[in-house]
Design goal:
The complex is a heterodimer of chains A (273) and B (294).
Chain A: H1 3-31, H2 35-38, H3 52-59, H4 63-94, H5 98-112, H6 115-128, H7 137-140, H8 147-158, H9 162-170, H10 175-183, H11 188-204, H12 207-212, H13 221-231, H14 237-269
Helix pairs in contact in A: 1-14, 3-14, 4-8, 4-11, 5-8, 8-11, 11-14, 13-14
Chain B: H1 2-37, E1 40-41, E2 49-50, H2 54-60, H3 63-95, H4 101-113, H5 116-127, H6 133-140, H7 153-180, H8 185-193, H9 198-209, H10 211-226, H11 230-235, H12 247-256, H13 261-289
Antiparallel strand pairs in B: 1-2
Helix pairs in contact in B: 2-13, 3-7, 3-10, 4-7, 7-10, 8-9, 10-13, 12-13
Classes of the chains: A mainly alpha (273), B mainly alpha (294).
């Protein structure tokens, strides 16, 4: 690349960088600002550091509770998905028979179903089961398995050398013992990928908990923030920004710690089978 | 022997049972149910009544439904074309000979991991007219400064598109970067020895070899854009004048605000068919255009 070409490339990259992170900066800049200065340009570009909005936002809802709900729902859902999809993928790859082939088709078919097209029956099923407004179960069980995770794990299991399986069978290892002692330890990157995928999906879930969970005691933090946004719409942006910061900060911390594996996992989910 | 084998295969089904039960009850059966529901006239609290195809007739004669189809297609087209182009350009720029690739990559991706409700909240504040930072900035540059990003019917959809591309381009860029690592670097080296400039290298090597990835990104982008809801709810509530009512918002509104389950189910069926047709079309096009295999 020529020197001027390089300058242009860096200029583009830095401009895009500013566009990508300015809104995130703006959450914090606004939330650390007095409301008078927040409305004056360019006053809030560098905030004066008041914590007043955080105190006010904190009092506007049970944030710690919302947060605990989101984290708990995310972790439990992730563990359940890991369990159901490891078992299913294993059954499909290592102990196939005629019935499993049909089941494989059915599981693949669920990947084609957009959630918004089945949300009405799902809502009514959950209602008939008595799960509506009844704790966390409606937010967890319908998402405790997903076709994509099964599919992804199958791809990884297929790449394990066949000789390993034959040798273990010769040694008299049981089918389940092979899964537990050999397959799972060799599957760690795939399990990390599935975990991050499922946790982010669960953390970002909005419409489903919004309609299925009316009791604030069980609502995740996204719904809590959306409800604050609709009741306080257009009145107090500095306080709303502080509330938005509450939902963003846990993710930012997680991203700071595990940025590398998150980025790698997500690029891996994008690789075609 | 035969019995033992049968026993073994039933035991094997236990591995599949947990996933299968959940996927059946909450994904596959509902897919059939939604089609059934769409044939009944049904509001909340009343008994469903057989209605034949009349629920489809209701939505087909609802101008808001047709508008929501148009809005959805415009939204999807803009997000897919814009988002794919931007992320492809950035992936290619980042891929070769840039310092701090990791830093740029993780910063571009950051908006995607943040909760959409949180980022929508801040964008709603940025979009406020005339007090939001965007209008103030335009005002400081001598412009109008009272643009109405989310309140002008013609502009609100554009604002949603900008927001959606903003939070998702980092994700599709990662997919492109993963695709680029599959291209052997000797190809570029050989081309540059032969005197090909950057543009020629892009159009003769990168672009054709990246076609499978591009198709994949386009399909993923299409599916995701079709299923956008959170930012629409948070930023515009489908308004103004239904200018941002997408099909997902139409389904939500009809089912969970007006409690008209019949027409909402009919719209959900149309929604499913539309996604299936569009992704199917994309695969069909790609089958014909990929020369290098996937």
């Amino acid at each position: 690349m020529t020197k001027s070409g390089k300058v242009i490339v860096y200029a583009i990259l830095i401009l895009v960088l500013l566009a990508a992170i300015f809104p995130i900066w703006w959450i914090f800049a606004t939330s650390l600002e007095t409301s008078r200065r927040a409305y004056s340009f360019p006053g809030a570009l560098w905030p004066n550091g008041t914590l007043h909005n955080y105190i006010q936002a904190w009092a506007a809802g049970p944030w710690l509770h919302f947060l605990a709900n989101s984290v708990g729902i995310g972790i439990v859902t992730t563990l359940l998905v890991l369990m159901t999809s490891v078992l299913a993928a294993y059954g499909l790859v290592f102990v196939p028979n005629r019935a499993t082939r049909i089941i494989f088709g059915a599981i693949l078919a669920t990947m084609m179903v957009p959630f918004y097209s089945i949300i009405i029956p799902d809502y009514l099923i959950v209602k008939d089961l008595g799960w509506l407004n009844h704790g966390y179960i409606a937010q967890i069980v319908p998402f405790a398995a997903n076709g994509f995770s099964v599919f992804l794990l199958m791809q990884f299991m297929r790449s394990l050398p066949k000789e390993l399986w034959e040798a273990a069978r010769m040694d008299g290892t049981s089918t389940f013992g092979y899964l537990w002692r050999i397959v799972i330890p060799n599957l760690k990157p795939a399990l990390a990928t599935v975990s991050i995928y499922v946790f982010l999906l669960s953390w970002n879930a909005f419409l489903w908990p919004f309609i299925a969970v009316a009791n604030p005691k069980f609502q995740p933090i996204q719904v809590g923030l959306a409800n604050l946004l609709s009741t306080a719409n257009g009145t107090n942006w500095t306080v709303l920004s502080a509330a938005a910061a509450f939902t963003a900060i846990p993710v930012l911390i997680l991203y700071a710690v595990a940025q590398r594996s998150i980025v790698e996992s997500v690029s891996r989910t994008g690789i075609k089978g | 022997m035969g019995n033992r084998k049968k026993l073994a295969s039933i035991a094997n089904l236990w591995y599949l049972a947990p996933a299968l039960i959940i996927l059946l009850v909450f994904w596959l059966v509902p897919m059939i149910l939604v089609v059934v529901f769409s044939l009944f006239s049904w509001t909340y609290g009343t008994h469903p009544q057989w209605a034949g195809l009349s629920q489809y007739h209701i939505i087909f004669s609802d101008p808001v439904f047709w508008q929501s189809i148009r809005v959805t297609l415009e939204f999807v087209a803009a997000v897919v074309v814009g988002g794919t182009a931007i992320s492809l350009i950035l992936a290619v720029l980042l891929y070769r000979g840039i310092r701090g690739v990791g830093f740029f990559r993780s910063m571009y991706f950051l908006p995607y991991v943040l909760p959409v409700v949180a980022t929508s909240t801040i964008w709603l504040w940025i979009y406020q007219s005339p007090v939001g930072v965007l209008d103030r900035f335009i005002h400081a540059l001598g412009g109008n400064g009272n643009i109405g990003w989310v309140t002008e019917p013609n502009l609100a959809l554009v604002s949603l598109i900008i927001f959606t591309i903003w939070f998702s381009f980092g994700f599709t860029m990662l997919l492109f970067m993963a695709g680029l690592t599959n291209i052997p670097s000797e190809l570029w080296e050989a081309a540059s020895v032969d005197g090909a400039n950057s543009w020629q290298q892009f159009f003769k090597i990168t672009w054709p070899l990246l076609t499978p990835t591009t198709l994949f990104v386009v399909v993923i982008n299409t599916i995701n854009a079709f299923q956008s809801f959170t930012q629409i709810y948070a930023l515009t509530r489908g308004g103004p004048l239904n200018g941002t009512t997408t099909l997902t918002y139409y389904i939500y509104q009809t089912a969970f605000r007006f409690f008209n389950f019949g027409p909402a189910s009919a719209a959900a069926v149309i929604f499913f068919i539309l996604i299936l047709l569009l992704t199917g079309l994309q695969f069909w096009v790609s089958r014909r255009s990929i020369q290098y295999g996937g």
